[in-house]
Amino acid sequence: MKTVKVSLNSIDKVKTFVNDINRYDFDFDLVSGRYVIDAKSIMGIFSLDLSRPIDLNIHADEAQLGEVLASLEPYIIESAPDL
């Protein structure tokens, strides 16, 4: 699992973000405070406070992680260190 901070501060960003991650078969979670939602759910994303950065947990193996991070580059503002 890899965690990055993403910024989804506009409606257009949310729509393109959901379209981008729906191309992958593995799970993505958005974590904001005590709330964890499926990042592939546009309705779930709009239930979060989008004015602040949100943690994105990517549940992919190392082989696929590079491609995913490259496609999510427009949204990533900070990458958390690997644990």
CATH fold title: Histidine-containing Protein, Chain: A
Indicate the overall shape.
Answer: globular
Mean pLDDT: 91
Strand tally: 5
Largest sheet strand order:
3-2-4-1-5
Major sheet details:
5 strands, antiparallel
Radius of gyration, rounded?
Answer: 12 Å
Number of helices: 3
CATH architecture descriptor = 2-Layer Sandwich
Model description:
With 83 residues, the chain is an alpha+beta fold. The protein is 31% helix and 30% strand. The protein contains three helices and five strands. The protein has helices at residues 11-21, 42-46, 62-71, and strands at residues 2-6, 27-32, 35-38, 54-59, 76-79. It is globular, with a radius of gyration of 12 Å. The model has no long low-confidence stretch (mean pLDDT 91).
Q: What key attributes describe this structure?
A:
alpha+beta; 31% helix; globular
How are the secondary structure elements laid out?
Layout: E1 2-6, H1 11-21, E2 27-32, E3 35-38, H2 42-46, E4 54-59, H3 62-71, E5 76-79
Antiparallel strand pairs: 1-4, 1-5, 2-3, 2-4
Summed up:
The protein has 83 residues and is α+β, with helices and mostly antiparallel strands. The protein has helices at 11-21, 42-46, 62-71, and strands at 2-6, 27-32, 35-38, 54-59, 76-79. It is globular, with a radius of gyration of 12 Å.
